[in-house]
Structures are given as C-alpha cells and as structure tokens.
Specification:
The structure holds 3 protein chains of 3 kinds.
Chain A lengths: L3 H21 L3 H25 L10 H31 L13
Helix pairs in contact in A: 1-2, 2-3
Chain B lengths: L1 H23 L3 H21 L3 H25 L14 H21 L1 H4 L10 H9 L3 H22 L7
Chain C lengths: L11 H19 L6 H22 L4 E3 L4 E3 L1 H28 L3 H20 L3 H19 L6 H32 L4 H8 L7 H18 L7 H8 L2 H27 L3 H27 L4 H21 L7 H27 L14 H4 L1 H15 L5 H15 L3 H26 L16 H19 L2 H8 L7
Antiparallel strand pairs in C: 1-2
Classes of the chains: A mainly alpha, B mainly alpha, C mainly alpha.
Chain lengths: ~110, ~170, ~500
C-alpha cells in the first residue's frame, strides 16, 4: 500500500544526495545540477502532501501542485541566469571550477 | 493495489541511483545525462501521484529546457577534453553531513503522527482545478513570477552579450 | 471566494513601480548611447513621484489584500518608504560610476527598480510562496547587478558565488517550507502559526521545517555561520551595488525575518521560548566573528563587509527580545535601520567617488585623501565614526535606543556584548581614519584625478547632514516609527 511516508522518504533521500553534491563538488555546473536535485526533492514533497491529504484540515486545494509549478518556473530562470554567468566567466578566465576562482580568498 | 507500490519502488530505485550518478560520476557529461534520467523518473513519480499535467511540465521544462541548457553550457565551456572531475577536499565531511541530515529527517517523518495518519488514497489533480486556482488564488505570485522571468531574460542577455568594452 | 480582491487599489504603489521599471527599460531603447544617465534620472524622478503615491494611497491603512497573501499596514508602509529612498540614493550615486565603468548602462537602472519592487512585496507578504517569489525577484536583480561589471573577473566570480549560495539557500528554505506544508497544509503565516500554537503540538517534521526555513533566511541575511559568501560578493560587486546589497538588501531581508518571526513564531509561545536562545547565540557569534575578522582586513570593501555582518548580529539581538518588550524594540530596530542606512551611504558614496577611475581597494591606498579631497574623507570619517557609535552622530542614538530596549526586555548581558562589539568596531574604523588623515601617501597626489559630479555631491552632503541631524533630533522619525510597534503589542 502506498503511503505518504514513502514519498517523504524518497524526497529526503533525493535531498541529501543533492546536498552532498552541492558540498562535495567543485565545478559550478555540477553544483547547479545538485541544487536541481534538491529542488526536485522539494517538489515531490509538496505534491505528495497535497495529493494524499487533499480535503483534510487546511488542505483544501491542490496548493502543493501550484507551489511546484512556481518552483519549476523559478528554477528554470535561475539555471538560465547561472549558465549565462558561467559562460561569461569561461570567456574571461577559461575555468568553471569554483575553487579556481582564486582571486578572492575563501 | 500492490502494483502501485511495485511501480513506485522501481521508479524510486532508478531515481536515486541516477541522482547518485549525478553527484558521484567523474565525467561531467555523464553527470548531465544521469541528471536527465533522474528528472524523467521524477516525472514518473508525478504520474504515480496522478498529476499528469505536472509530469508533462516536468518533462518539458526540466527534461527539455534545463538539461539542454546545461548541455549547451558544457559544450561552450569546453577545453580540449573533459578532465576527470576532482572533488572538494572536504568531501568526507559533506558525506557525513548529508547522512546526518538524511537520518534526522527520516526519523522525524517516522515520528510524526500527522504524516503517519495521512489517508492512503491519492486524489488526482485535474488540470482544470490547477488552472482555476493558479489564476484566482495565486494570481499575485503568478504576476510576480512573470517579472522574475523578465529579469532573468534581461540579465542573461546583459551578462552573456559580447559587446564592446572588453578584450 | 477571494476575499478582499476588490481592494487591489491598495497595491497601487507596486503597480506604479512595475510600470516605472518597464518605462525605464523602454526609455533605454530610445535614449542614445552616451546620454544613458538620463535613464537613471527618469528613474529618480519616477521614484520621487512614487514616494508621494505611496504616501497618499497606503499611509495609515491596515488591511489584508488579495486572499490575505499581502498585508498593507504601517510596518510595510515605513519599509516601502525606506526602500524607495534607498533606491533613489543608489541610482544617484551610481550615475557616474555606471557611465565610466559599465556596459549596458540603461538596464542597470531598471534592475535597481525591480529590486525595489521585490523588497516592497517581501515586507508585506503574509504567505511563504509570495515571499519566496518576491525574494527571488530581489535576488535575481542583485545577481545580475553584482555581475554587472562583466569584463572584470572578480565581479563575475562574485556573481556566480552569489547565485550558487542564493539558490542553495532557497532550496533549503523551500525544503523546510515543504515539510511545514505537509503537516499544516497551508503556507499562510497565520495558518502555520495557528497550528504551531496548539498547546502540546510538537510535530518533529514541522519543527525541523521551521529550522530549515530559518537556516535559509540566515543564509540570505549573512548570519554567522552562514556568512561565508558575504565578503567575496561585497568585494567583487561594483561598489554602488555593494552599497545596495549592504543597505537595501540587508534591510529587506531583515524586515522579512522580523515579519516571519512576528507572524509565525511569536504566537507559538513554547516554540518561541526555545528559538529565542538560538537567536541569542547566533547574534553573539555574528557580532563577535564579524567584528573580530574585520580587524585584520586590509581591503576596504572586505572590512565594510565584515562590519556589516557585525551589524546583522546587532539587529538579530533586537529580534531576541520580541515578545518580552512592549513593542518598543521594533521601533528602535526601525530607527536603527534608518540610521544605519544614512550612515552607510555617507561611507559608500564617498568611497565610490574615490574609486571611480582607479582601482584603489586597500585601506592604505586611502593615505593622503584628507589633504586632496577633504570633503570626501570627511564624509567617510563621519560615516565610520557614526557606524562605530560615537556621540553627536546618528550611530550613537540608534545604538542607545536599541541597546536600552534590549535591556528593558531583560537581556542586559546581550546588550553588554553588543556594546563591546561596537568598541571593537571603533578600532578598525580608526585604522581606516588614521590611513586617511595621518599616514603619508606613497606617491604624491594619488587622488588628484577624482572629479565628483553634482548627483554624487547631493548624496554625500545629504547623507552627512542626515547622519548628524538624525542623531541630534530624531523625534520626527521616531514618532513616525512609533506606530510600527503596534505589531508587537
């Protein structure tokens, strides 16, 4: 029997994999990919909550689905902007590795 | 009913292994392809949750747009060949931290009465109900999101455009 | 179904601002190259008009708008006025810099305007998704503005770091929100507060969700230990943008945090009593680490970045006493933010003028400035003394008000630590002042080619005057701010 908690656990798994990717990777593009995984974990959580608990308590509408639509929109815009910046950096310096941005010390 | 659980487990297994592929693979192109498969399996999860509309949106925007943009960026930022990716030196700490987050959050979900007592039926979300609530209840955030897209568009052009002034 | 949808008129300032931004983008297409400063001037005139529009449409009104997603009240009114003013000053001080240093000059002003729109909606939102999207609107504008000097690798790197940290913190915030949503079923502050304040409610998922939301906001505000992006971003950004980040974006993020704490956490007394302690610890670590690391900095922008982290700590210690005072703390926080803004503008505008067309960035490069450009160095010195909290200046009165309301709230020790942190900050501000007034420059007439035009003079003189005037005679401002303290009663 499928239950809400299955989806929650799946979402946590995906979130921690993404978190690991963000913290362990050095290339800006790979970090952005890992952040996308985290955002997908968020979306699974929202939709599962809305789908399973529809009609109970304050869960009157499919608000979780709507939140997901917004998150996907913003994420797409964010990726576009970030990759434009990465292209600019590459043209100026020929690197996309965050730790080779050595002009400023961390 | 168990059929659902089987489908869910298979898709989840694919999703998590692809996600691990994204963060572990030593080749950046492989990572991007793993990301594509992970995002497609998320669309599968949405189908299990009976939201066809979001599954299609997921395929179009994530699978179509985002992965393609990432692949574009990979192509355009190409040196001679893709070097094997080196990880941050702190990667063991990153691993420990994410395992800790994983354990804490999973335990909290198992401990939560609200989550455990949720109903076991999935309500399908029709496009009609989504549309009407998007354009009535959520109209203000919707308008704001259009401005966010405008800023992203202008910003990407301003930053990536190669015009005079530099080398 | 949609209650209050008929009072969309209360959103007139936002509609006007969005229209103004689009008008500015259009004007940029018409105005020829070389005259782009007129784009900025249109924006300034429009913003001054917007001040009147805002005052005439929403002043003194307290009413929820559109499904309770937004709340027009005195708190949001005061902050809107602050943001619009900050926008005007930022555009005026950017004009010469943009003209000499940047390409795509017209779009710069439109992005500053849209950032103000994001801040305005952020402070009046009563719902997390609206808040998130307006926060993203603000952040997107800032990502682009930070990377605006696009042939400067430092600016590029600052922008990519900012965007990575920003997206990462948004992802954490959203995950927290999704946890809270799966328990509560709504993203309205009032609904979440209602569920959290049920006695004996201790759902671990909701608690962790709130924690994640707070971590996300702490990232945005640059609270230690989530501050690591601040120095790099502040250093790499073009300097008027650094000012905008340190003043506008910081006030907006702080106003948002205060709104969330008041709306979500204060009603749940058990929850708030434990979060108070966490906030106190974060406030102390932020003050100590921010001011401590600022001492060893050799670059002006990094020094100011760490000092602004220290100020975030002071502000956070004001939040600790929410609920234990009678609203007076909100009034003094508002006063603190205004005082911090005018003082910082005195410093940043003069530094912008000094660094127009040369790459001065070290503190020792400012040696000899007092002989060649006395007014600029006086502006920096007055600003720094005021930031350190010396009497005569607004920096003293704001700290006096805030620290006394913290001790009224029963946290005398926290106020004590804040005073000590201010003393430390005096030390590194004095290093900078010594460099300008005492040290002998390595080369003669290093600052000879600085020319300052009238928009910049307006900003500099106005900020110096306000830094002194608000310190001596704060009554009109404080009376105006008095009403926002109703939120906490």
């Amino acid at each position: 029997m499928l239950e809400l908690i299955h989806f929650n656990i799946l979402s946590v798994l995906l979130f921690s994999v993404g978190l690991y990717g963000v913290l362990a990777r050095k290339s800006a593009i790979l970090i952005i990919m890992a952040i996308e995984l985290m955002l997908n974990a968020v979306n699974i959580n929202f939709i599962a909550a809305a789908a399973f608990k529809h009609g109970g308590g304050l869960f009157t509408n499919f608000d979780g689905h709507i939140l997901t639509i917004f998150i996907i929109t913003i994420a797409a815009a964010e990726v576009g902007l970030a990759l434009a910046l990465i292209l600019r950096i590459f043209r100026n310096k020929s690197t996309v590795n965050v730790d080779q941005f050595d002009m400023m010390k961390l | 009913m168990n059929m659902h659980l089987v489908i869910f487990s298979v898709i989840s297994a694919v999703l998590i292994s692809c996600a691990l592929g994204v963060v572990i693979s030593r080749n950046i192109v492989h990572s991007a392809l793993f990301l594509l498969f992970a995002l497609i399996s998320v669309a599968g999860i949405y189908l299990v949750l009976l939201t066809e509309f979001l599954a299609i949106v997921q395929l179009l925007i994530y699978g179509g747009a985002i992965v393609i943009v990432i692949l574009f960026a990979l192509m355009l930022t190409r040196n001679e060949e893709y070097p094997r990716i080196q990880n941050n030196k702190l990667w063991p700490i990153a691993g420990i931290l994410s395992v800790l987050v994983l354990i804490t959050l999973s335990v909290s979900y198992f401990q939560s009465d609200v989550i455990r007592n949720a109903s076991t039926t999935i309500s399908p979300a029709g496009v009609k109900s989504l549309g009407s609530s998007l354009f009535t209840t959520w109209a203000i955030p919707f308008e704001l999101a259009s401005l966010v897209l405008l800023v992203a568009l202008i910003g990407a052009i301003v930053i990536a455009r190669s015009d005079k002034g530099g080398n | 179904m949609i209650e209050g949808s008929n009072n969309l008129l209360l959103l007139t300032p936002e509609f006007v601002l969005a229209g103004l931004a689009l008008l500015v983008f259009t004007a940029d297409l018409i105005i020829p190259e070389g005259k782009k400063e007129w784009v900025g001037r249109i924006a300034v005139v429009g913003l001054i008009g917007l001040l009147f529009v805002t005052a005439s449409t929403v002043m003194g009104i307290t009413q929820p708008v559109y499904n309770n997603f937004l709340l027009v009240d005195h708190y949001s009114f005061v902050f809107k006025m602050i943001f619009i003013t900050v926008g005007i000053i930022t555009i005026l001080m950017s004009e010469e810099f943009v003209k000499t240093n940047l390409t795509s000059q017209g779009e710069y002003y439109g992005l500053v305007l849209l950032a103000i729109l994001g801040m305005n909606i952020l402070v009046q939102s009563q719902e997390f998704l609206t808040a998130y999207i307006s926060l993203e609107l603000l952040s997107f504008c800032l990502y682009v503005l930070v990377g605006y000097s696009k042939f400067n690798p430092k600016s590029n790197e600052a922008a990519i770091k900012y965007i990575i940290f920003g997206t990462f913190s948004s992802a954490i915030l959203l995950y927290g929100l999704s946890m809270v949503y799966s328990v509560v079923g709504s993203t309205l502050y009032s609904d979440i507060a209602q569920v959290l304040s049920t006695s004996g409610f201790m759902d671990p998922v909701a608690m962790l969700g709130i924690t994640f939301i707070m971590i996300g906001i702490a990232f945005k505000l640059g609270i230690v230990p989530f501050h690591s992006w601040i120095p790099d971003v502040y250093e790499g950004a073009p300097i008027p943008v650094t000012a905008y980040l340190a003043i506008g974006a910081k006030i907006a993020a702080f106003a948002f945090l205060a709104r969330v704490v008041i709306g979500v956490m204060l009603p749940a007394e058990e929850l708030w009593s434990s979060w108070k302690i966490i906030f106190a610890i974060l406030a102390i670590s932020t003050m100590v680490i921010g001011n401590g690391i600022a001492i060893v900095q050799t670059k002006v922008k990094r020094m100011l970045a760490y000092s602004s982290i220290g100020h975030s700590g002071v502000l956070l210690s004001g939040i600790v006493v929410f609920g234990s005072t009678n609203g007076i703390v909100l009034e003094s926080l508002g006063y603190y933010l205004v005082g911090y803004a005018v003082t910082s503008f005195a410093v940043f505008s003069a530094i912008t003028a000094v660094t127009y067309n040369n790459n001065i960035e070290l503190i020792k490069d400012f040696a000899g400035l007092s002989d060649e450009k006395p007014l600029l160095s006086a502006s920096i010195a007055i600003g720094l003394f005021s930031l350190a909290g010396l009497p005569l200046f607004v920096g003293f009165t704001i700290k006096f008000y805030l620290f006394s309301s913290i001790s009224i709230g029963g946290y005398l020790w926290l106020a004590g630590i804040a005073v000590l942190a201010s003393l430390v900050s005096l030390y590194y501000y004095l290093i900078m002042i010594k460099s300008m007034y005492v040290d002998v420059p390595e080369q003669e007439r290093a600052h000879a080619d600085i020319t300052v035009r009238w928009p910049m003079w307006i900003v500099i003189i106005l900020s110096i005057l306000m830094t002194i005037a608000l310190g001596i005679y704060p009554d009109p401002l404080v009376n105006q701010l008095n009403e926002i303290s109703d939120l906490l009663k």
